[in-house]
Amino acid sequence: MLNSEQLAFFKHNGYLIIRGGLDAQLCAEAQDRMWQELPADSLLKRHDPATHVGPFRQQEESFSSLHLRSGYRWQQRQFGTEQLMIDLVFNPTLCGIAEQLLGANTLRTPVVGGTPMGTVGPAWPGGPVDPAMGTEGVRGIYCTLPYGDKPREPDACHTDGHPFNLGIVGLLSDVPADGGAFKVWPGSHRRLYPTFSMMYDQPRIPYYDHLPTHKGILHTPEYCAEIVCLLEDTTPTDCWGNAGDVVLWHHRLAHMAGHNYSDVMRQAVLYDFCKTDLDVARTIPPDNDMWRDWSEALQEAGTDYSADISADQNLTKLCQ
Ligand SMILES: [Fe+2]
Hints:
The model has no long low-confidence stretch (mean pLDDT 96). The protein has one domain (4-312): q2cbj1_9rhob like domain (Jelly Rolls). By secondary structure, the chain is α+β, with helices and mostly antiparallel strands. It is globular, with a radius of gyration of 19 Å. The chain has nine helices and 13 strands. The chain starts with a helix and ends in an 8-residue tail after the last helix. The protein binds fe (ii) ion.
């Protein structure tokens, strides 16, 4: 269970790294499962890291919403409701922590054998997959291939548009600094939360075949302005770590899948903890108390935490 310093850190910064939050054996089995899905004649060879450098060759690309291989991204969702994947993330440690943050007996339970993310295809032709659409398990295993000699590029942060309460990104293998682990903008949840028109959801512009220019999520001007400020005034945290380390993150936290300038593939499992009352709460405007749906323990958490916990959390610069 989290101590008072960890609760304070999460409340202030919007994220918390749990070292060893995933079982090591299950991480290894999840990697086995992931590699099983790669075509046998692929140029990527599991035990030859030199072959993992991206991008995917054109003949190896797949644009299936259940199994994407494109550029430097390898995203597998088709096994997201198998027992192994649900045991991996919906484990007693992480469920206990999620309940400590969100309240006891409040979590929606994933469905073994249910529909995985991507089952209903992309949000529009050629578009992204909505992580909430028909998803009854984990989002999937998301890999970022090493960039090799790709030129460095700037960071760009976003928030996720679909309703959920608490996200997790769990590392299945060791990821070094600058290796494409989850990157977060500390404190951004407190600045972005009031800029939304709905507490957990967002208005969307429908996609029409004959009117294809405008589609997808509609952001408020306040949100767009705050994202620009965040990129200028906040130093992001690179949540690198070892196999089994898990990042918990607030649903309005700005983040990105980091660029992978290392020589190893970033392999991570993504899951969204949702409360059973999310359908009621999702369209309510943001509350004056942004912690109204969180546990009493979190509501009452202070703001003090030590330099030791900041170091353990990869935090390089304190945020206001
Ligand atoms: Fe995202």
